[in-house]
Prior knowledge:
By secondary structure, this protein is mainly β. The chain has one domain (5-101): Roll (SH3 type barrels), CATH 2.30.30. Helix content is 13%, strand content 32%. It contains one helix and seven strands. Strands 1, 2, 3, 4, 5, 6 and 7 form a seven-stranded antiparallel sheet that branches. It is globular, with a radius of gyration of 13 Å.
Amino acid sequence: MRQFDVFAKPSEASRDFAPFVIVLQSDLTMTKTTVVVAPLVLPDRLPEPSRLFPRMHVGETPLVLSTSELAGIGRKQLRQHVTNLSGSRDAIIAALDLLFTGI
Length: 103
């Protein structure tokens, strides 16, 4: 498991609006049991994409990073790896910077 890996969301109940989660935790700080993730949400479920809520794609599916919904999750719950979004690193880091520092 690496930073910016995308997995199918473990909770089937909310997959209709947030089909994936993205690993945000650095590879250097990962533990054996948990990892910090945020949901990737369909664009019509969040405010307009912005620096705080950057738009990205998983395949052809447009999604928005729901930066304000960070969560710790058991690594064992993340079973279905989909892709890695390290190409969106700058937008993701900018969103996290805004969330935590306001700048």
